[in-house]
Amino acid sequence: MYIIGPRPSADAERVDLVPYVKEGLFYREAPLPVWRIEGRAAAAKLAARGYRLSQSYIPPSVRPYLEGRRSPRLGGRVASFYLDRGVVHWRMGGEAWKGGCPQADYVASWGQPPPCPGLWVDLRRIYRRHLWLEAAERMGDAWLLKAARRRPEDAADAVHALAAEAVAFLEALAAATGIGVDAILDVLERNSVAAVAEAVFHWEAERRGYVLEDSRRLFDMPYFDMARGGKPGVYRGVAEFDFRSLFPSLAVKLGVDPTTARPCAGGYCFDGGPIADVIKRWLEARLRTGDKRLSEALKWLMNAGIGAWGKAGWGIVCEVCLLAVRGAAASLFDEAWRRLKPIYGDTDSIYVESSRAGDVAQWASALDGLTLELRGVWDVFILAPARGGGAAEKNYIKAGGGVFEAKGGLLRPHDLPLAVRLRYREVVEAALAGRDPADAAAEILRAAPPEQLFVYRAVEVRRLAGLKRRGALHTAALYLARRCGGCEVVDVFYVPDGDLVYVPWAAVDRRLAARPADEREVRAAAVSYIRRLWKLKALRLASGGQMKIVI
To answer: φ and ψ at 343, to 5 degrees?
Structure first.
């Protein structure tokens, strides 16, 4: 960590680096000394005393890798465990056992401290949602049935599947940055991937002889999404085009760099710099590589590093830099919409009738420094209607070639009973064939196994404290949390029904008073619930009952 200004302590070492401090919207060179101090414990106290800090949020473990004194070790062995009632369920290399300690480089778990040696990968710091939701997102909704069974063996399998994915991503980050996985985990303990990117940005600036003052934003810059849709409905033969690394490409093309940002006649100008050079290096590596995991890691680094210019917290803050990139993207989006008249478009993707794919390719060929790829042609594309009219932004279904994807909260099946969620594709097909999707969903529920009648959600118990307004989900979660006793997260299987909410197998009122509930009344409540959902009404309105398509 570096201190800019007066010497902070007797053990501080003067270094020959030029400080760039934040003045208003811009970084400016300052005639101040720079001091190196070890550790981060004193950072908050020094900041409170008015000292300017640099790299205060970067763990010391990162520097040996950036300086070349250490090199990342890749290809490590991954073991994972799940602790249930004092029994440790291990998974490694296709094997399963209980107790003991494996010979592993990484030991992964879902928040449970490891009982054995190895670099601990706490999956809760890698994934945003809870265990079963992440498993369902990556491996299919059938994993939610395992959540209902509550078998520790299933939980151990879910943890291991996510551990393998997480370690592969961490090692890809290490390969992209030269920072070891241990140091990356140190960063992620308090920060995000953006701080990993910024560690490299800081190092590149330092190699050129200067340091950047840590800046702080109290809140995120507002983000005006560029999603736009045409007329809601069903479209056939829709070509999807996607800009490859749009924001990084624009940053490189414009030379956007916080160290050289300045006001000029056209608004803000940039002259490149160390950060722009790092982004360019990563962008070229991503366009060149055939390694999917490395490509994804580079994408995360670039987008997170750029997005952090306007994020809340400590870091390299440059609002004008982010505005320049977003403004260029918005202009490009407006041009695409004006020339190509897409069916739908958002920040970096556009969907057009397949007959217009040639027009898109011709337009893209003239975009210097940008790469627009044809991702595929979908047999069916459903653009959902919004409640207030027009198209619902970022809510669509696309299907073709054996692939079925639902995007957006309005059309995703996340709030449907499990039986319908698992067969959601059939519900959509029914709508396309002219049937009421609610009728199709009701048929599925009438024949469903009892455990599949419920909607699944995961709720953190700490979020239930002090609720001013309590919905059916909160009522069910509070009831189950009391019965769980000490759980941090409760797996909530529930069906709302007026003033009651059903859980397996009880009817709970708002006062958390419960009575036994049988399968018949839960099934009836589930059917009533899905008939009230706007999701299925939107499907019916979008399809119009005029197209008979099997997806």
So the answer is: -70, -40
Nearest to 140 by CA among 447, 413, 376, 529: 413
Report phi then psi at 288, rounded to 5: -90, -30
- Structure-block tokens of residue 258: 């916080």
User: What is the chain's length?
Assistant: 551
Backbone CA torsion sign across 335, 341, 346, 350: negative
pLDDT at 484 (0 to 100): 84
The pLDDT, as a whole number, for residue 40 is: 64
Residue 208 phi, psi (nearest 5): -95, 5
CA distance 207 to 223: 33
**Angle, helices 246-254/292-307, rounded to nearest 10 degrees:** 60
Q: How far apart are CA 115 and CA 215, in angstroms?
A: 39
Strands (E), 46-148: 52-54, 78-84, 87-92, 95-98, 106-109, 119-122
Distance CA(265)–CA(254), nearest Å, equals 16
Return the beta strands (E) in 252-367 as ranges: 262-264, 267-269, 313-315, 344-345, 349-353
CB 313 within 8 A of CB 257: no
**What DSSP character marks residue 119?**
E
CA torsion sign for 203, 205, 210, 213 is negative
Q: What angle do CA 402, 405, 411 make, to 5 degrees?
A: 140
Which regions of the chain are under pLDDT 50?
545-551
Q: What is the pLDDT of residue 343?
A: 93
Packing angle, helices 319-340 and 357-365, rounded to 10:
140
pLDDT at site 524: 97
Q: Please, where are the H alpha helices in 191-262?
A: 193-207, 246-254
Predicted pLDDT of residue 41: 63
- The whole-angstrom distance between residue 256's C-alpha and the CA centroid of its chain comes to 25
* 40, 45, 47, 49: CA torsion to nearest 10: -150
Angle at 322 between CA 349 and CA 226, to 5 degrees: 30
Q: Which of 205, 206, 210, 218 is nearest to 257 (CA)?
A: 205
Distance CA 65, CA 58 (A): 13
Nearest to 384 by CA among 337, 452, 422, 437: 437
Which is nearest to 233 in space by CA: 400, 431, 381, 404?
Answer: 381
**Cα–Cα distance for residue pair 301/518, rounded to 1 Å:** 51
Interior/surface letters 41-66, b for 16+ CB within 10 angstroms, e for the rest: ebbeebbeeebbbbbbbbbebbbebb
User: Distance between terminal CA atoms of the chain?
Assistant: 57
Distance (Å, whole) CA 177 – CA 199 = 9
Pair type for strands 13-15 and 215-217: unpaired
Give per-residue pLDDT as tens, 292-313: 999 999 999 999 999 999 998 8
Judge contact between 310 and 25, C-beta under 8 A. no
Angle at 534 between CA 531 and CA 535, to 5 degrees: 95
CA distance 551 to 230: 22
Say if residues 243 and 372 touch (Cβ distance below 8 Å).
yes
